[in-house]
Write a structure and sequence with these properties.
The chain has about 500 residues and is mostly helical. It contains 20 helices and 2 strands.
């Protein structure tokens, strides 16, 4: 019997499933069933990690693996899971499964390829959240981008090729700059220590001159800012969301945006603490600008998908604010908000996709009177949009409250301005709910209420949103130790 380490299985099970689907290109039903089975198995694995505790060589990590790989270059297969990566790994497994379910009927061409790409992307995202070797991290970072490019380009709508290319160019430029910075760190550390390594633990503490540290951190920050995305590097996101299939939008908003924030937390600040402190005012300023700008632009949107896309930019601005504050409370709130945004925005894009499947339009002005026609769908519509707006008792409120509380001491003005960004979404959310659900019907649309498959998706996400909103303590408890290690604060 060959024993496969837990993290290795978690990383490569979806990729193995993607390879398996290559043999099922003409057997669509079998391909869908196989992909969903693998996604569910990955979800069970990810959730079981919650109960994994034990002594590991690296403090703060529940699970850890470190194996030789390309020893001549100092590259090792090093991966670890602490409380931060645990929550994001579970989120990845859940959102990937939901992405498959929302595609179950809407994808009718090249079905096996569609599900294959989703599984390949899941492996890439898992790798980003678990890698503790910079070379391995970069490899998974690139792996997750390629399937999204094809999802938008092949199954997208309208200007899908334009949006796919724009997404690829933005992310590739940032990725190449990060690669140059990784090589620079590797060489500098090797010259100082005589040991060439890409390992995060080895590279942490490497000395840089102020100018060198500034430019290396700047390259990392730019790559991660594109993925957040932070203003003014955000312009690829609304186009990508508008033209992507529903599964693409779900994964893009639910997961890919989180990789930029995670990279900044895991690699940016620990590797370049001095440069990060120097550029903190810039990060906070850009975060607040994004919160206000995105909320304002959302008012003008007539396409529901674009409205949700701009709301995502605003919510990720709060995450950036929490990271910039770099206090235990603010950083815990930022990580929790990443999870909250992943769940809520997944539900919003699923809802918009369900409407689009039925009425073949996403324009707000085409709808009206849905509360009387499809009441169950409308109830979920109200719940998730109010969760997105930060209604107390729902999950987004907890994350935003912690971020604002933890940021106020070090950034008074920024926190006050960000609070305005909490109020603005309430305005456009109430307007949207009024026009779509309660205003007089403007077009005679024959709409069916949610199916059992759709009900299972929305009910699960609703329970998760309500649970975190009412009882976030278990998630915050598991974040205490890793956040304390990162910020130097008491657990």
């Amino acid at each position: 019997m060959i024993e496969i380490p837990f993290l290795t299985l978690l990383l490569f099970l979806p990729l193995a499933g993607a390879v398996l689907l290559l043999a099922m290109t003409t057997r669509e039903r079998l391909a869908k069933a196989t992909a969903l089975t693998i996604a569910l198995a990955e979800t069970v694995l990810a959730c079981s990690a919650w109960f994994s505790r034990g002594d590991t060589p690296s403090p703060g990590y529940f699970l850890f693996v470190d194996s030789p790989w390309i020893e001549t270059l100092g590259i090792r297969f090093t991966a670890g899971m602490d409380g931060i990566s645990l929550l994001l790994v579970i989120l990845t497994a859940i959102v990937t499964t939901i992405a498959m379910l929302v595609s179950w009927r809407s994808i009718t061409e090249r079905v096996a390829l569609h599900f294959l790409l989703i599984l390949a992307m899941e492996s890439g995202i898992m790798g980003v959240f678990l890698s503790l070797d910079l070379f391995l991290f970069y490899l998974f970072w690139e792996l997750m981008l390629i399937p999204m490019f094809f999802l938008i380009g092949i199954w997208g709508h309208d200007r899908n090729v334009y949006s796919a290319v724009k997404f690829f160019l933005y992310t590739m430029v940032g990725s190449l700059l990060m690669l140059l910075a990784i090589i620079g760190i590797y060489l500098i550390h090797g010259e100082q220590s005589g040991v060439y390594s890409f390992g995060l633990a080895a590279l942490t503490g490497t000395s840089f001159s102020p100018a060198t540290g500034f430019w290396l951190y700047g390259a990392f920050l730019l790559a991660f800012a594109v993925k957040f995305p932070l203003v003014p590097l955000h312009t690829w996101l609304p186009d990508a969301h508008t033209d992507a299939p529903t599964a693409g939008s779900v994964i893009l908003a639910g997961l890919l945006l989180k990789t930029g924030a995670y990279g900044l937390i895991r690699f940016g600040y620990p590797l370049f603490p001095d440069a990060a402190r120097t550029l903190t005012p810039l990060l906070i300023g850009v975060a607040v600008a994004g919160i206000l700008y995105a909320s304002w632009i959302a008012f003008a949107q007539k396409d529901m998908k674009r409205l949700v896309a701009y709301s995502s930019i605003g919510h990720m601005g709060f995450v950036a604010l929490g990271i910039g504050a770099w206090t235990p409370v603010a950083l815990s709130g930022a990580v929790l908000q990443m999870v909250n945004h992943g769940l809520t925005t997944t539900a919003l894009f699923a809802l918009v996709g369900m409407l689009d499947e039925r009425a073949h339009t996403r324009r707000i002005e085409d709808y009206g009177g849905l509360w009387n026609k499809i009441p169950l769908f409308s109830a979920f519509f109200v719940l998730f949009f109010m969760a997105s707006a930060g209604l107390p008792g729902l999950n987004n409120f907890v994350g935003e409250f912690l971020i604002l509380t933890g940021s106020f001491k070090g950034a008074h003005l920024a926190t006050v301005l960000a609070f305005i960004g909490v109020v603005l979404p309430l305005v456009y959310t109430v307007r949207l709910i009024q026009e779509v659900l309660f205003q007089e019907e403007r077009r005679p649309l024959l709409l069916a209420d949610v199916s059992p498959r759709e009900l299972s998706i929305l009910a699960f996400l609703a329970i998760a949103d309500l649970y975190i909103g009412m009882h976030p303590a278990p998630l915050l408890e598991i974040l205490k130790a890793p956040v304390a290690v990162l910020t130097g604060g008491a657990p």
